[in-house]
């Protein structure tokens, strides 16, 4: 009897873990509340257990210039055009971004992934460490998020064409800019 209870508890726990993983990986459609900068969006949940709750997320795989650095305001303005307040937006694939203390997610509109658009237009850098697919099945050959190749290709094309921040002779990535501010440079 005792073994049956332990087995039943183990099965329940395993079911919960599988369910939580599936729910975490599933895309969610919510409403844009506000665009905070060139890679950060505030959303309002429209359904489920989080209905009415607001969250702030970054674009997974892309980092835009800070608002006080070159192209920062342009990046914010463009993201506002793409992620219009009040409109629905789909997101999935959360990935912790420690320096912003936020989760980076894959935002998608009817026109495609926002990160790809921002990188393609030279308004964001690719963050390669965020391109890994944490939800890939073990043993699967696919280890990158779907838009990883598109992001890397978009950045290379933007750089070659000198679009946006790549028009600058020496563009400074936001993580380096932040480091310079801390050092007082």
Can you tell me about this structure?
With 185 residues, the protein is α+β, with helices and mostly antiparallel strands. The chain has 5 helices and 8 strands; from the N terminus they run αββββαβββαβαα. The strands form 2 sheets. The chain has a 5-stranded mixed beta barrel with strand order 1-2-3-6-5. A two-stranded antiparallel ribbon has the order 4-8. Helices cover 36% and strands 24% of the residues. The chain has a single domain, classed as OB fold (Dihydrolipoamide Acetyltransferase, E2P) (Beta Barrel), CATH 2.40.50.90. β6 (102-109) and β7 (112-113) form a beta hairpin. Mean pLDDT is 82; it is low at 7-25.
Structure at a glance:
With 185 residues, this protein is of the alpha+beta class. It has five helices and eight strands, in the order H-E-E-E-E-H-E-E-E-H-E-H-H.
Can you tag this structure with a few keywords?
185 residues; alpha+beta; OB fold (Dihydrolipoamide Acetyltransferase, E2P); 5-stranded mixed barrel; two-stranded antiparallel ribbon; 5 helices; 36% helix
Q: What's the number of extended β-strand segments?
A: 8
| Helix content estimate | 25-40%
Going by helix content, strand content and strand pairing, the class is alpha+beta
Radius of gyration: 19 Å
| Uncertain stretches of 5 or more adjacent residues | 7-25
Compressed to H and E, one letter per element, the order equals HEEEEHEEEHEHH
User: What strand line-up does the widest sheet have?
Assistant: 1-2-3-6-5
Which word captures the global form? globular
Sheet of most strands: 5 strands, mixed, barrel
| Total discrete domains | 1
Instruction: Report the mean per-residue pLDDT as an integer.
Output: 82
As a percent range, the share of strand residues is: 15-25%
Specify the CATH architecture.
Answer: Beta Barrel
